[in-house]
Amino acid sequence: AQSVTQLGSHVSVSEGALVLLRCNYSSSVPPYLFWYVQYPNQGLQLLLKYTSAATLVKGINGFEAEFKKSETSFHLTKPSAHMSDAAEYFCAVIFQGGKLIFGQGTELSVKP
Amino acid sequence: NAGVTQTPKFRILKIGQSMTLQCTQDMNHNYMYWYRQDPGMGLKLIYYSVGAGITDKGEVPNGYNVSRSTTEDFPLRLELAAPSQTSVYFCASRSGHPNTGELFFGEGSRLTVL
Question: What pLDDT, on a 0 to 100 scale, did the predictor assign at position B98?
Answer without folding.
Answer: 58
